[in-house]
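Example record for the data management plan.
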Amino acid sequence: MAQRDEEGRNKPLYMISVAAELTGMHPQTLRVYEQKGLVNPGRSRGNTRLYSQADIDRLALIGRLTDEGINLAGVVRILDMREHEEEMEREIDELRTRVRELEDQVREFKTRERITALAKYDGGTPESVMHGLLGGKVEE
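Corresponding structural encoding:
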């Protein structure tokens, strides 16, 4: 679901006039920001700039930063650090998920090991040992 939300945020929807109105910036400012690589709007078949919601949010952040007196070089650095942080957070989430999976596997292996240690081994299959532990009969 999060991926679908992210895809929706990145869908090019707004023409430059709408993007300018939404951000409170002049269309020429948006063109300059694109030229400097601060934003990269999509393009329609007719080569019209189309801004996504993610672009609008990014432009709003750029506007706040420049309003605070940060020059464009500083804005570029802040945006780069922010993207790097988001990438690291995604990686950490993936690693946490993998650690949970491995912990579950270890727990399962330890449980099997304890059960096996309690069971008498008569040369049968692990399934027959389990059925014996559970008081059931082995189906053959």
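Summary line stored alongside the record: The longest helix spans residues 72-118.
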